[in-house]
Task: inverse folding
């Protein structure tokens, strides 16, 4: 499915704009980048492959009372170096962000991010139906495969899964996630950065971050929890409390995960283009660079995956 930003724009509730002090984009100066080539990245088709002896099992087999995730995504491109994947039956989503510094070196800066997500998805598809996914193991394997292919460039990455009733994660760098319960943040990943704007990153060379440095964790999930997984294009441009307000408003308005991801990505896009308001990026930037004039957002690829935690075991029809 392809959507233009204007279509996304129309789905941002006016009340939200008023609440956040944003103008409608049609009243605003045209952005430097084209609006027409922005698209929603579709998830790959869900088809389970043949069983194999390659479990990523964290726990025992699926059983009654298990939770699952219903998710959708929105991707607004800038340099188009983000990548993501998701598999509803396996209950796992991931996002990755190619480190833009490789662009100047004549390398496809999206290569490692795409490789990681492609390999993670392939690994999930090849697992036995009902297998519970351990994000750390999946990230480790995807990394090994991407390195083995001699893939250039570097990437941050996060993988989140629901295994039984447990929400699990593993991430490297500043791709992250937030878990909301009753509209409030229950858990928020904290980015790994070497220094301002330089996240830990996975790559083929020895100077990359080893997967063993990934932040790994888990919490007990509950039906109704909302998990927002994204790249720094989201989290550098939208404060946690703004995400919370979108979650509460979206929940009250009955938003689907698709609606919710579009509003978050659309909002992040607008703030990323602002020069006169604070963002997480500008607040951190002022502190780290001692430039009092540091204001505004950070234009970037914006990937948002929104997963609603719902009851019921995995089903084949769900995506
Ligand atoms: Mn980014």
Result:
């Amino acid at each position: 499915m392809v959507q233009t930003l204007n279509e996304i724009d129309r789905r941002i509730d006016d009340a939200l704009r008023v609440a956040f002090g944003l103008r409608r984009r049609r009243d605003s100066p045209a952005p430097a980048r084209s609006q027409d080539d922005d698209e929603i990245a579709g998830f790959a088709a869900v088809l389970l492959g043949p069983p194999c002896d390659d479990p990523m099992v964290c726990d025992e087999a699926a059983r009654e009372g298990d939770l699952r995730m219903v998710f959708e995504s929105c991707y607004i491109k800038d340099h188009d170096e983000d990548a993501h994947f998701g598999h509803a039956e396996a209950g796992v989503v991931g996002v990755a962000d190619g480190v833009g510094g490789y662009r100047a070196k004549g390398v496809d800066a999206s290569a490692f991010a795409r490789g990681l997500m492609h390999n993670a998805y392939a690994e999930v598809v090849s697992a036995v139906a009902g297998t519970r996914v351990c994000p750390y193991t999946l990230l480790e394997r995807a990394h090994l495969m991407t390195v083995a292919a001699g893939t250039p460039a570097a990437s941050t990455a996060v993988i989140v899964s629901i295994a039984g009733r447990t929400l699990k994660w593993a991430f490297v760098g500043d791709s992250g996630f937030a878990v909301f319960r009753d509209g409030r943040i229950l858990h928020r990943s904290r980015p790994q950065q070497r220094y301002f704007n330089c996240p830990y990153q996975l790559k083929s060379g020895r100077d990359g971050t080893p997967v063993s440095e990934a932040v790994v964790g888990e919490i007990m999930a509950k039906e109704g929890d909302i998990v927002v997984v994204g790249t720094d294009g989201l989290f550098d441009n939208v404060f946690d409390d703004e995400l919370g307000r979108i979650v509460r408003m979206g929940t009250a308005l009955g938003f689907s995960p698709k609606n919710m991801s579009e509003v978050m990505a659309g909002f992040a896009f607008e703030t990323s283009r602002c020069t006169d308001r604070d963002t997480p990026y500008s607040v951190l930037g002022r502190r780290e660079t001692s430039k009092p004039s540091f204001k505004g957002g950070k234009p970037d690829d914006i990937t948002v995956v929104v997963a609603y935690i719902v009851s019921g075991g995995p089903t084949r029809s769900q995506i």
User: Anything to note?
Assistant: Residues 97, 231-233, 300-301 surround manganese (II) ion (CB under 6 Å). The chain has one domain: 5-45+63-311.
